[in-house]
Design a protein that fits this description.
Distance between the termini: 46 Å
Number of strands: 24
Largest sheet: 5 strands, mixed
Strand order of the largest sheet: 1-21-20-19-18
Radius of gyration: 19 Å
Helix content: under 10%
Strand content: 35-45%
Shape: globular
């Protein structure tokens, strides 16, 4: 495979424009009964930070391979790590006890977080300052830096430069996918695919609202079939692609998706920035449950921007604006 060039992109856009007529009917195709509504009353005091440290924006949350402990990518007690030497990566057990932390002085704007099936930890640094940022990192479970993608503090649209990367996810065969581009700035708005050792393979996307185009690809996740789900937040939809960038579908019933997590049994958890947390099926798009934010329907609401779940059904959500790490349990 090679990089998608200008001619290929024009061809892809033309094909996707034709597909747009079918896409317009997507929302109607997923008509369904109303989901069960739950109050947004999770606990925000369960995780124990070291003495003297307070929560900043917990921009990334992801359950570990044991499906019990939790990794958190946090903005150093504020909304940025640019002026801090605090460790931005922390791991907690299910009781909230801090197990380990690392990443001091490495990041500017912690954003996306992913843990692969072997326990390796991937993070996206979504901004740049003073020669740092605009990069994606891979760590061992104990904090050893193993791989870096992008050039520190440098923006670009080439194969090895990013502009505000928002998230990262790893396929079953080890390829690394990066959601590159965070609004409101004019950034790349693309998905970039790399081999497991960091070699560029291909990319797709581009700014826009047509099928396959993106506006703030804020989070990405794979389902059990290997399909890539993209939280196309600026377009208020989830887009689904194969790993070659082929457009499959678009779902609008999950609101304004800011964070996505798909469990091993294909339950889809979506942090809907303007509403709460929507839960449904990654197989057919059905929405079954809705953790409704306080004040929903009464004006702009900002709650969770990242979400994950453990094997016991505990749902974890990072509130960037509220600077809270929430935990919910939905009765079944």
């Amino acid at each position: 495979m090679t990089r998608v060039g200008s001619a290929s992109r024009l061809f892809q856009i033309g094909v996707l424009s034709i597909l747009g007529l079918a896409w317009l009917g997507t929302e109607a195709a997923y008509a369904q009964s109303d989901p069960v509504i739950h109050p947004y009353d999770g606990a925000d005091d369960w995780a124990q930070l070291p003495d003297g440290r307070t929560w900043g924006a917990p921009a990334g949350v992801y359950v570990d391979t044991d499906q019990a402990s939790l990794w958190v990518f946090e903005r150093c007690g504020a909304n940025s790590c640019a002026e801090s030497d605090l460790p931005a990566l922390m791991k907690f057990d299910s009781s909230g006890r801090l197990l380990q932390s690392f990443g001091e002085g490495l990041f500017v704007f912690p954003h996306g977080l992913h843990v692969d099936r072997d326990g390796y930890v991937y993070v996206a640094d979504g901004n740049g300052q003073d020669g740092r940022g605009h990069q994606v990192f891979k760590f061992s479970p104990t904090g050893e830096l193993l791989l870096t993608l992008g050039q520190a503090g440098t923006t670009g649209e080439g194969p090895y430069t990013f502009n505000r990367p928002a998230d990262v996810a790893v396929s079953a065969d080890g390829d690394i996918f990066v959601a590159d581009g965070h609004s409101p700035l004019e950034t790349n708005m693309r998905i970039v695919r790399f081999s497991s050792d960091g070699q560029y393979i291909m990319e797709w996307g581009g700014k826009g609202s047509a099928p396959g185009q993106l506006d703030d690809p804020h989070s990405i996740a794979f389902d059990s079939q290997g399909r890539l789900f993209v939280a196309d937040r600026g377009n208020q939809r989830i887009q689904i692609f194969d790993q070659e960038g082929g457009y499959i579908d678009a779902w609008t019933q999950f609101g304004s998706p800011s964070g996505i997590y798909i469990s091993p049994d294909d339950v889809l958890y979506v942090a809907d920035l303007g509403a709460g947390i929507r839960i449904g099926s990654a197989k057919d798009g059905t929405v079954t449950d809705f953790i409704q934010a306080p004040g929903f329907g009464s004006g702009p609401v900002r709650v969770a921007e990242s979400v994950t779940v453990d094997s016991r059904g505990n749902i974890y959500a990072g509130e960037n604006a509220g600077m809270k790490l929430m935990r919910f349990t939905i009765p079944r």
